Amino acid sequence: MSSIKLYSYWRSSCSWRVRIILALKGIKYDYVAVHLVNNGGEQRTDVYRSFNPMKQVPTLVVDGNSITQSMAIAEYLEEKFPKVKLFPEDLHTKTKVREICEIINSGTQPIQNLSVLQRLDEDKRPEWGRYWIAKGLEAVEKFLEKTAGKYCVGDEITAADTFLVPQVGNAHRFKVDMSAFPIVSRIDETLQSHEAFVAAHPTKQPDNPEKAA
Ligand SMILES: N[C@@H](CCC(=O)N[C@@H](CS)C(=O)NCC(=O)O)C(=O)O
Question: Which domains does the chain have, with CATH numbers?
Answer without folding.
Answer: 4-83 (3.40.30.10), 91-197 (1.20.1050.10)
